[in-house]
Design a protein that fits this description.
With about 110 residues, the protein is mainly α. The chain contains six helices and two strands. About 10% of the residues are buried.
Length: about 110
């Protein structure tokens, strides 16, 4: 299960998750926290990455590339994880890809 799916389920169950430095704070009813704590701990690196913000301009590049290449939900999870690890490297890669898309579309229209 992807980190985003796990977060969605935990939130639907009443759990609040907040990153706090390298720790993850869980809040909610005691029974919910106790039930989710082991599952969250097992996926902590992926969950921390999923909770890290991605700059808007990079998210727009991801969306444009995803629409063009028809990303699956798992593809989006992978590319967003890459965006959190190396946002500048991914931005450069996606900007190059978008340039190529535009170039090919221009050539096809001529």
């Amino acid at each position: 299960m992807s980190a985003h799916a796990l977060l969605d389920q935990a939130r639907a169950d009443g759990l609040e998750l907040q990153p706090n430095g390298d720790k993850l704070r869980l809040r909610g009813p005691a029974d919910v926290v106790a039930r989710w704590k082991p599952r969250i701990a097992a996926s902590k690196p992926e969950i921390m990455a999923a909770l890290s913000p991605i700059p808007d301009d990079l998210e727009q590049l991801i969306a444009r590339a995803g629409a063009f290449w028809e990303y699956s939900p798992d593809d989006y999870d992978l590319i967003r994880a890459a965006a959190r690890r190396d946002p500048n490297g991914l931005r450069l890669s996606l900007e190059t890809d978008v340039f190529r898309q535009n170039y090919h579309q221009l050539k096809e229209s001529q």
